[in-house]
Sequence to fold (560 residues):
Amino acid sequence: MKTVKILGPGCANCRKLEAVAREAATGAGVEAAFVKVSDMKAIMAYDLLSTPGLVIDEKLVSSGRIPTQAEIRHWLVV
Amino acid sequence: MDTFLRLMTGGAGNLAAYLAAHVLLCLLPAFFIAGAMAALIPKSSITRWLGRNAPYRVSYPAAAAAGSLLAVCSCTIVPLFAGIYKKGAGLGPAITFLFFAPAGNILALAYTGSILGAEFAFARFALCLLFGIGIGLLMAVLFWRDDASHDAQTDALFAEQASIGPAATGVLLSLVAVLIAGTLKLWPLTATVFTMSLPLPWAEAWQATLSQWVPFDAAKGEEGVSVQGSLLILLLVLIGLAAWKGLENIVEGANHWTWVALGLAAATLLVAALGVTPRAGGLELALTGRALALGLAMAAVLHHARRLGAEAWQAWLWEAWRFVKQIFALLVVGVFVVGVVRQLIQPEWIQSLVGRNDLLANAVAVVFGVFMYFPTLVEVPVARMFLDLGMHRGPLLAYLMADPELSLQSILMVAAVIGRPKTFTYVGLVAVFSIVAGLVYGAWVDGVNPAWITLGLAAFVGSLVAVTSWLLGRRRAVPARA
Fold:
């Protein structure tokens, strides 16, 4: 069971990232709990300079862009 | 019923004028540039100058550059602001970044230039840059203790280095060439190379129908819908449809709708650059130097874009499309509403309140800017409305400086990151600086001797330095709580 956090104040890219990440999790057959983090203080606890940020099991794997499904599947499986 | 009809016509007329050729020639390339900046300029190429140990003369210009190049939307503005403040160069550069971002980004500059004139756009850019750095320095001096209390954490966030690749540079430069070729009002761009007549007998009747649908009064500076305008609106709708199918999932790869959307966008620019005049029994097409220059510049974009990696150009198109979705729809609605509201405002009200360039008029403009919130870029058509109704250009600049900086939304966001006392100080400083900017620019427009303006500005800067050094003196007097 993985915990996937989407960091972002609710902008278009954050919603897109969540959709892509959910599809990637389904595609990889990985069970994952999705958490949306929109509080700025909580977001800044991670080292990122632009949203959306993707955190898998408390590790920031990408920020400031929307990764492809293949990338996210790779991070989910590792 | 008559009033309702008049209001609707006002809105439609305003919208038609804003979808006219000269606006599209600026806005369409600007969206592509904004997308390219967001996707192709690595953030670390600028943020590496914003670390905790960066000297003042580096961090403030870098903060302004970040505001201009990186921050086209709130996705970047908020985290980067909080990052610079808490983990990087500190409060001053963070404030400079925050202040300069809404005025210095490419979309705001290009749009202000096409709606209010190039001189106005330049004044907005230069004064925001100057005063953004000024406000940042003042905040840093006022709240020096706050920065000192942030212990020297790891600088890892700002240590990463990257530079812009040659293909990305080529794309950005040739996109800027597209923007310049489309907007500059200079020979040979304005020259007509040759004209031809298309035998389209319905063109004249269609123009008459359009003028009937959207009546306009040329004496009031209103623009109706031309045959060319109706073709452009049709092309925009088609781009929207094709882009929805071709760009929504671009991150996963392109499909043939992607190429349709891009082809339509290029066609729109070319049509907008042509001279189209309905004549008796036909449509006269004029091939302009502008159309040729645009064709060349777009070929250059294509040439450089082919050298980009797939991930890079897909990210570029996604960002451009996202900006269109986020901003363009709101802009269309906003422009329509502005057209409706304009019918309800008497020019006398505006002229008596802000028709002159004095302290009161500038203050009124700033207060209006603080209490009104308009979505991104809608402040520009609002400003155009006030200008047409007789507002002086000085207070207009003051309003344009205060409005995007100080909406309630942005004040709340800033307060969440830096706390209330600092936020109130910031708001007060922005208000004062906006009023001064309006007075300075208004004096320039009124033709006041530049020597007097320089003297006034020098007096303002001088008093600022005096206050700052007094505060610095107090700072030395207080023993630092290390």
Remarks:
- The radius of gyration of chain B is 24 Å.
